[in-house]
Fold this protein.
Amino acid sequence: AGRARSMLRAVGRTVLDATYPLYGAYPDAQRDWVAPAVEVGMAAVRRYGISAVVSVGPPASAHIAGGRIAREASLPWVVLANDLSGLFADASAQRPALHSMLARRWLRGASRAGAPTPAAVAHLRERYGLEGDVVVAPYDPDDRRVPPRRAAGAPLRLAHVGALAARSREAGVLLDALDLLLAEDPARREQIEVEIVGSDDADALRDRLGARPAAGVITLRPGAGIADELRTRREADVLLQVEQGDPGAPGVSSFRHAPRLFEQLHARRPIVAIIQDADGFVARTLADSGAGVAITDAAGLAELLRGMLAELALQAELTFTGDDEARVAAYSSPEQAKRLALLLDAASAERFGRWQRA
């Protein structure tokens, strides 16, 4: 009898785990806010005469709420997915078949989609039949460009602005590369400065740094505001771009937004990207624009930094080779607003026949 009860409990746990998406906090912990969000959204539609719905995620549940509002109000709906690795990219799901079925249900009624990379746009079209375009968090072209101000003999200044997961592989690449350089020549401690600004994982980063050599050249400034982030970019010699993601989901990094990449391109500083996918969006964008280098390992990053130190020993500042202004301008806020407007026009035309009638 005892063995039978144990088997029943094991079967029960397996069934509950397999069907969790049907009743649990799925696809994310914000699922509970969907119902009240739909209620508020429908009230806004009635009060303000809204003509279209745009859902922006993550969280993935934002698209569930947006879809319900659009279907109940019979409005055109555009999905803006800054990260496909949760709701739409089956490669990241523990239950691919059930996940795909639910995603198709949640996307029912969507007319167009904006996604952060060409690979993500292609995935939405091929898997879910959603036409779309690349739409990203843009840079502001009115941000003033300031050339680096370097005093003679000043250290090489590298800056990372934004979130940096302390336990990520990419953070490890940065720390290991700095350790390598400092182990080779302790005098480099006076030649390199690294600022990590605005990361909400600063305490964990401090723990990971501990007493390792890299701790001597890294400054952590969590909680920085926009003005501080902008100042940091303007004062840096090199901008660090870190491509973070789930190493257990190969290729998913191609479905994710690259935070601040286009602001970094606009700043016209050499960019060093620590990446997962050597053929991914970040690597291709840097190669096409000539604005930076993509690195996958600590040895490669250490070698690149050695070259930069040698360059600064011979000249006043690092050479910036990016020259494709038109490519960068495509990711400015005016141009990205045009792309979103075209998606809304197409969605409205599909729903109403002519977008003017929306």
The longest strand covers residues 156-161. The longest helix spans residues 333-352. The beta strands are 53-57, 77-81, 112-115, 131-134, 156-161, 192-197, 218-221, 238-242, 271-274, 292-295.
